[in-house]
Amino acid sequence: MIDHIGFAVSDLAASRAFYSPALQPLGITLLMEVTEEMTGGHGAHLGFGRDNKPFFWIGTGKQVATSVHVAFAARDRAAVDAFHAAALKAGGRDNGAPGLRPEYHPGYYGAFVLDPDGNNIEAVFHGG
Length: 128
Fold this sequence. Notes:
Strand content: 35-45%
InterPro entries: Glyas_Bleomycin-R_OHBP_Dase, Glyas_Fos-R_dOase_dom, VOC_core
Shape: globular
CATH class: Alpha Beta
CATH architecture: Roll
Protein name: VOC family protein
Distance between the termini: 23 Å
Pfam family, one: Glyoxalase
Strand order of the largest sheet: 1-4-3-2
Helix content: 10-25%
Largest sheet: 4 strands, mixed
């Protein structure tokens, strides 16, 4: 099981403005901020998560990744739909509208958006 994941972004403020509302329908919020000074000049970072556990990190100070795919688990189809709508409203670009993806497995319901750096961000529900 993965404990956490992180990658660099080109504009931390723009990425915060995207991820904060986009992840909210999934119950994921900004939990931690680490400044450039706190890292000794190794970039600033934002930690998103739930239950006081940051598990999704974005930050500066490294080469920007542009081919990342991150999928967040959703509690139901409505949360997938809400994620997609919130992500588009926050400036994300559609990369696959909410819907069934039977080519992955029966009951796979997902939606995809591209973040400000072009990373493929997904919300998925594995229900029926």
